[in-house]
Write a structure and sequence with these properties.
It is built from 10 helices and 18 strands. By secondary structure, the chain is α+β, with helices and mostly antiparallel strands.
């Protein structure tokens, strides 16, 4: 399958978005990720103005030819002059009485639009809810992003050994991901060993891997503009590994409980609780401070949120991570992260790398 979206999917998304809008006569879309989701446009500048009958895509001269090639079914407008003035004129021409806008709009831009006399209303979560449910083609791309990430890791895994520097492993993995076909990386690769591993988002350093180190590697792949996200924690041979093995097995059990708790219609916070309760019962509750997971798609962090305070409800074809962890300052930390897609009754694991503890 070529790495591009089909026009029919864009039309379906736009129709669903129109159906979800209430209390407004037009919607302004400025988030570049949402623009891509609705149009297929991969440039960095533009906005959409959507009414019940009109679909306008505006961008600047730099992207004129690209927009004409990548977008179908949109009236393309090349911006000239101030954006707020352009939006104001279009709204008047289209008789938009109340303009919906995304909460991500900056306050400064909101003020500019308000000064033009536009009546505006924030539209919350419409795009997020739409993007959270993946269609068949999106899932194909995500699976391909997973496959690329896994093959890239396996290609460099034998180099992960005592004496290697964290940032050397990072560079090797980045190169391997690009060789696997990833056009970009979803986030900066994390390689953290020994005491550094107790920091969930530690940056790779000059530190060398030592005997007995826990080694966290968190990375992702890309395919067709969609991302993957996964983490594996390895353990280097050394003296007195008992505590580290105990912590690993606790996280592994929490991971399994969370995966088995996933089902359509369930509150996301219950999936988080399934993992968190295992870790609390083992006496490590205070050492697991982040959420159990997050959605992944054209962004590496999107809806749903799998956290203790999430209001999201799990739905079929959502794709998200399951990533419990324990981080003990002075000892080290570990995380096991996989991606799942929600089926009719349970979760399907998209990641295939072994989750059993590997001692190198």
């Amino acid at each position: 399958m070529p790495e591009r979206m089909l026009v029919i999917h864009y039309a379906s998304r736009i129709a669903k978005l129109r159906d979800s809008l209430r209390g407004i006569s037009g919607l302004l879309v400025t988030d570049i990720h949402n623009i891509r989701y609705l149009t297929g446009f991969t440039g960095s500048s533009g906005f959409l103005l959507l009414t019940k009958k009109k679909s306008i895509f505006a961008t600047d001269f730099r992207y004129k030819e690209q927009a004409e090639k990548q977008t179908k079914g949109w009236d393309i407008l090349i911006e000239k002059g101030e954006r707020a003035a352009t939006i104001s004129k279009l709204s008047k021409d289209l008789n938009i009485k109340r303009l919906g806008f995304e909460p991500s709009v900056s306050y400064a831009f909101f003020q500019q639009l308000s000064k033009k006399g536009l009546s505006m209303k924030p539209v919350r979560d419409s795009m997020e809810r739409l993007r959270a449910i993946k269609d068949e083609e999106e899932i194909v791309f995500i699976k391909k992003a997973v496959s690329r990430a896994e093959s890239a890791f396996l290609n460099i895994k034998d180099y992960i050994r005592e004496g290697m520097r964290e940032n050397r492993i990072e560079r090797m993995l980045e190169e391997s991901l690009k060789k696997a076909g990833c056009n970009c990386l979803p986030f900066d690769i994390i390689v953290a060993s020994g005491k550094n591993s107790s920091m969930p988002h530690a940056r790779p350093s000059e530190k060398r891997l030592n005997q007995g180190d826990l080694v966290i590697i968190d990375w992702g792949g890309e395919a067709g503009g969609y991302f993957s996200d996964m983490t594996r924690t390895l353990l280097l041979q050394g003296p007195d590994l008992t505590k580290k093995k105990e912590i690993y097995n606790t996280v592994l059990k929490a991971h399994a409980k969370a995966v088995s708790a996933v089902s359509s219609g369930k509150d996301a916070k219950k999936v988080d609780s399934a993992a968190r309760n295992v870790i609390k019962k083992a006496g490590y509750g205070e050492f697991f401070g982040h959420g159990t997971g997050h959605g992944v798609g054209i962004q590496v962090h999107e809806s749903p949120l799998i956290t203790w305070n999430s209001d999201d409800v799990i739905r079929e074809n959502m794709v998200f991570t399951i990533e419990p962890g324990i981080y003990v300052e002075g000892l080290g930390g570990l995380r096991i992260e996989d991606m799942v897609v929600v089926g009719k009754k349970k979760a399907e694991l998209l990641t295939t790398l072994s989750r059993e503890l590997e001692i190198l």
